[in-house]
Write a structure and sequence with these properties.
The complex is a heterodimer. By secondary structure, chain A is of the alpha/beta class. Chain A is 32% helix and 25% strand. Chain B is an all-alpha fold. The chains are: A alpha/beta, B mainly alpha.
């Protein structure tokens, strides 16, 4: 065993304007290990890795790689040193082929592309070796997200690497695809490569790593061997306090049907069919979850329910009233709340203040407005109340909402939607971009809403979120509901198969 | 009316169409490069005017047409450098800067022309048609296609070369990627800013060449506003051609045909339509194509957006 670490990061600091992204990070990665970086969103994991692969330059500190101090000024330098990173947002040009993406930026700029058959052959060989099933001539935009990720991983291997950094790779995968990825990481290590795995999912990190470093507030708070820790301890290190992993639920039978969807179909903005005959009921006092890999019609389903996308056929009935095809304002007025997937597009107006954002749907109603004039005092009081109750971290209610972190923006959206006293709450990605602490809080809030008799439909790609608070889980695949399961972690395999579109798979024992 | 469908008429029409399409071919192929890299240069009109003026001035001073063309390219690129600096380095809005450059191009060339040339009123020697041996003697085809000047012939070469560069070189591949997913290019270790500058310079260089053709290969004079909207038509050509250089060549020919048609119809005594209506033909066709093709995909997805690393 060599005494020198493969990669040593020494007291790195980096700030972006007023935001300190790295506050003296030190970390050692050993050759041939799978080292996980665990931490909440905004803990500084991605920025740290961006500095290792040359995309961001540190303000202070040293990076020592293979025993030499390195100072990368561009990603090119890192590629030359055989460091490769698979980014959370894929670095693939959608309208080019896989092979074209691989040779992008390689060789001299003036060279003529002539050796594509060699490139294709090399890609096929690599693809076979790691069982990645990548076709070099495929156009990237025709591939599913899971396939694109394999393309992205193979791209890094194609360029030749010793160190592979994976940034939140499992966020877009089904459980089976995740398994496949985790075993691939093992294969790579067997081939003599070193892997850094960035994640915020405790179970995956526990399964695959040799060592785990936990980051919080721009620092590495601890590095532990995987055998010497447990999930609870890791969660505590991430958040800085104890986290309850199970939320208590009162076993109350659900009440009357609040929202009923009958055979709904609609098309995506591209004109392609996205929702193909979805029927479901949500009752008062229950949380119904919709699981599925993103891109299976969940987005369109929630847009169609909330009036943001035209419905082709089928009906949506809320409290006995047909609201199919009504405009969003009308639907909102029927005690329908919507916590959207893309809050920047459908949830908030970034340059407006917190106050203005809290009254987006009710700006013309009493008590917020009288005679066409806004009541600034009432609006301010209302907003301050929400900020306090939902612990939104902000300077004051007049601050533009753009200045808040994603988690705090989400908390304000949740606060606003619940404050409208809805009968039905449509949630798409409840905890997107928010940290464990805040997540625990909004989940508890959702359970409180359920217990007070509201009907909730929770669409999510995060299975943990669904298991934690749902009463039953529907699985969506290719625009259809393929099946329904109780929120039982023991039936994860079944759920995964449904998410992959495998309807006829017999239920596993138990 | 008999005259209209005669072969002589058609041959003359085809010949004029190609000649009149030439400035559009250069400018639109140039703009394909620029837009493929994500930079929308609506300042083409002003750039072409600068090219037309520089070409004229250089040829008037030296009597050398190739030198004039070179001056046109250089003038266009200089203008392009200003555009690139504001839109790529300073990240100003591309539409605003483009509009400003159009105004600057019109004002500057008019001012310089009035100051130095208008009193002389002198024309210059322009590029003469080159009859291609044997081919130019073919009936119909000869007159239609093989009695042009060298600049017109060169459009074929430029179109083929542009397609080869865009689709068969590493430069072209990277350029196309820059307009779709600049960050991917950045991560692959190429400079997005560098490629965008290069694309704008290729674009404005060709636009300058297109402008210079107007004074050196078509009319023998510079006239204020000589481009008369060709820069804007070239923008429409790019959309119609779906951002392909070969497509831009043929779509430009189509617009050249409209130009030629209106000119030749004006000469027909039997046609009673007011000439203003005929003159408007290319512009009406521009609007029609843009409306007909509205919302059809294929545009580079980062068109018009400045690139921010991180």
């Amino acid at each position: 065993m060599s005494t020198k670490p493969f990669l040593r990061i020494d007291n790195i600091r980096k700030r972006f304007g007023p935001i300190i992204a790295s506050d003296g990070v030190s970390l050692e990665i050993e050759e041939g290990e799978i080292h996980s970086l665990l931490g909440e969103n905004g803990a500084g994991k991605s920025v740290l890795m961006s500095m290792i692969c040359g995309m961001v330059r540190p303000d202070e500190g040293d990076i020592v790689y293979k025993g030499q101090s390195v100072r990368f000024t561009s990603p090119r330098d890192a590629i030359r040193e055989r460091i490769g990173m698979v980014h959370q947002h894929f670095m693939l040009v959608p309208n080019l082929t896989v092979a074209e993406n691989y040779i992008l930026g390689q060789g001299s700029a003036l060279s003529v592309i002539s050796n594509m058959t060699t490139v294709h052959r090399k890609i096929r060989a690599l693809s076979e070796r790691y069982a990645l099933d990548v076709r070099p001539e495929a156009i990237v935009e025709d591939l599913s997200v899971g396939e694109q990720q394999r393309v992205e991983i193979l791209k890094v291997l194609f360029h030749g690497i010793d160190l592979l950094i994976l940034d939140e790779p499992t966020a877009v995968l089904t459980p089976q695809e995740t398994d496949r990825l985790l075993s691939l990481m093992g294969d790579l290590v067997k081939d003599g490569k070193t892997v850094v795995f960035i994640s915020h999912k405790l179970d995956e990190v526990m399964r695959v790593s040799n060592r785990i470093s936990v980051m919080r507030d721009g620092r590495v708070v601890n590095t532990v061997k995987v055998g010497e820790t447990n999930a609870r301890e890791l969660a505590r290190m991430m958040v800085g306090r104890d986290v309850r992993m199970e939320l208590p639920r009162s076993p109350k039978p659900p009440g009357r049907i609040v929202l009923s969807v009958e055979n709904l179909t609609c098309r995506a903005e591209t004109g392609l069919p996205a929702v193909r005959g979805v029927s479901l009921d949500v009752r008062a006092g229950e949380i119904v979850g919709i699981a599925g890999v993103s891109g299976n019609g969940q987005t369109e389903l929630s847009l169609a329910l909330s009036g943001l996308l035209p419905v082709d056929s089928g009906r949506v009935i809320l409290n006995g009233n047909d609201i199919t095809g009504h405009d969003p304002a009308k639907i909102n007025a029927r005690r329908f709340s919507h916590i959207p997937e893309d809050r920047h597009k459908h949830g908030i107006v970034l340059p407006l203040s917190l106050s203005e954002n809290t009254i987006l749907q009710r700006y013309n109603q009493k008590p917020f407005a009288t005679g066409g004039m806004l009541n600034r005092r009432v609006i301010g009081e209302h907003t301050r109340d929400l900020i306090k109750r939902f612990r939104v971290r902000s300077r004051d209610e007049n601050q533009p909402i753009a200045a808040l972190s994603g988690g705090n923006q989400q908390k304000l959206v949740v606060a606003r939607e619940l404050a409208r006293d809805p009968d039905f709450i449509l949630v798409n990605q409840l905890a997107r971009g928010i940290d464990i602490g805040a997540m625990e809080f909004v989940m508890e809030e959702m359970l409180r809403q359920r217990d007070s008799g509201r009907a909730i439909l929770l669409i999510s790609t995060e299975l943990e979120e669904l298991f934690a608070i749902c009463d039953r889980i529907l699985v969506m695949f290719h625009g259809e509901i393929l099946g329904e399961l109780p929120p039982d972690r023991a039936r994860l395999d079944e759920l995964g198969l449904l998410m992959a579109g495998n309807k006829d798979q017999p239920a596993l024992a138990g | 009316m008999d005259d209209m469908i005669s072969l002589t008429f058609l041959a003359a029409l085809a010949s004029a169409a190609w000649r009149l399409a030439t400035p559009l071919i250069f400018a639109s192929i140039g703009e394909v490069f620029s837009e493929r890299a994500g930079v929308l240069n609506i300042g083409l009109e002003g750039t072409m005017l600068v090219g037309a003026f520089c070409g004229f001035a250089a040829a008037a001073a030296t009597g050398n047409i190739p030198l004039g063309l070179l001056a046109g390219v250089a003038g266009g690129m200089l203008f392009g450098l200003v555009f690139a600096f504001f839109t790529i380095t300073i990240k100003a809005d591309q539409i605003v800067v483009g509009a400003a450059l159009n105004l600057l191009g019109m004002g500057l060339t008019a001012f310089l022309f009035r100051t130095y040339y208008v009193s002389t009123g002198k024309g210059i020697e322009i590029a003469q048609p080159v009859h291609i041996p044997w081919l130019s003697d073919l009936p119909f085809l000869g007159e239609a296609f093989f009695r042009q000047n060298l600049i017109v012939y060169s459009t074929v070469l430029v179109a083929i070369l542009a397609a080869l560069v865009l689709y068969r070189t590493s430069f072209g591949l990277t350029l196309r990627a820059v307009g779709e997913h600049p960050k991917a290019v950045d991560v692959a270790g190429r400079s997005v800013v560098g490629y965008r500058y290069a694309a704008v310079l290729v674009g404005t260089g060709l636009a300058g060449l297109g402008g210079a053709f107007l004074t050196l290969g078509h009319s023998n004079q510079f006239v204020e506003g000589i481009t008369s909207g060709r820069g804007f038509i070239a923008l429409a050509v790019v959309v119609f051609a779906r951002w392909s250089p070969i497509g831009a060549f043929f779509v430009s020919l189509l617009f050249g045909l409209f130009y030629a048609l209106q000119l030749m119809l004006q000469a027909q005594a039997s046609i009673v339509v007011p000439y203003q209506v005929l003159q408007a033909l290319p512009y009406i066709m521009t609007i029609v194509t843009l409306v007909a093709l509205r919302g059809k995909g294929a545009a580079p997805s980062k068109l018009g957006q400045p690139y921010e690393m991180r």
